[in-house]
Specification:
With 180 residues, this protein is an all-alpha fold. Helices cover 64% and strands 0% of the residues. The chain has nine helices and no strands.
Length: 180
Amino acid sequence: MLDGNPRNQALLAIASAINGYCKNHDTCSEEMEIQDPLRKILAFLGTSCKLSKYGDQDLTRAIFALKAIGNAGRLPLENDDRNFQLLRKCFQDKTNPIEGRLAAVDAFRRMPCHHYEQKPMIDLYKDMKEQTEIRVMAYLISMKCPNRELIEAVKDTLYTDAVNQGTILSLFNLFSNLVN
């Protein structure tokens, strides 16, 4: 179903099916029927995730691939570290369009905390020069796996980020909703 030129919606549907299947099968990530479509989805990002160099159609396909990775909540097992590095390149490259960078950050939304290094996401949140949407998304993904480093980063950022009231207001609203 992913051979040739699959429809963008097919990427999302297959990835969602993978996530649903894997919820009930602990060893699903080792199965070829899971690994093969994950490899094909990841291949739409190329080797460097230079989304700024893509044409409109390829950019749209790459964004759908990133959303599909988020739906699946996993990456292919082989070259695991390299696969995570590729996703990091997608959100760290400031020449990439914001839609692609946001999709790359959001691709981590279903991934187990122990599967990836959280520091790049925390660094993205702490970067005062970064676009607010990217910082808020990085914060939300990071809060899925809170740790001492993240809590310290949030505290420090709230004290020093007086210029960026949008981020502070978003965090305040989130904390208020959690308390209520």
